[in-house]
Amino acid sequence: MAKNKTKVKAQENESISPLIGSWAFMFGMLLAILAGLGFAEKGWAYLTLGILGLIVGYLNINEHESVPFLVAAIALVTAGTGLGSILTVIPGGVGEQFLAILHYIVSFVAPAAGIVALKTLYEIGRSPSV
Predict the structure, then answer these.
(1) CB-neighbour burial class of residue 2 (10 A; exposed 0-12, middle 13-18, buried 19+)
(2) Which residue range forms the structural domain that includes residue 114?
């Protein structure tokens, strides 16, 4: 009977983890946009986005999604760096706001990518080579 309770508890935790991760992702994206538009204090926004990114990387990205996620994260970080000079020339400050939003999104995605990279390295290291 104790085994059944343990299995049920494990199944409940497995079913709630993706939900927490999904909410963390949605809240992180919303916060990144609001912070980029100037509606959040910079230091707290970066800290919160970093923590949410860690949660998303740990709870949301499974083994099959890790490579596409890491490729997308690398592309996003590269685009965030490269688009800076292009976006700043858009008149009216609009480009600077887009750039700020992009920087906050990168601050959200980078910790998730770090966690996914560590999880991937762990899985590669623990699996026996054939």
Answers:
(1) exposed
(2) 2-126
Q: What number of other Cβ atoms are within 10 A of residue 102's Cβ?
A: 20
Query: How many structural domains is the chain composed of?
Result: 1
Task: Please tell me the distance from the alpha carbon of residue 125 to that of residue 28, in angstroms, as a whole number.
Answer: 31
Distance between first and last Cα of the chain = 39
List b or e across 71-93, with b for residues whose CB sees 16 or more CB atoms inside 10 angstroms: eebeebbeebeeeeeebeeeeee
Q: What is the pLDDT of residues 83-105, one digit of tens each?
A: 888 888 888 888 889 999 999 99
Q: Using the 8-state DSSP alphabet, how is residue 63 labeled?
A: T
| Nearest alpha-carbon partner for 25 in 69, 68, 64, 67 | 69
- Which pLDDT tens digit goes with each residue over 6-31? 554 555 556 777 788 889 999 999 99
Strand (E) or helix (H) holding 15: helix 2-36
Q: Which two tokens stand for residue 117?
A: 């990279």
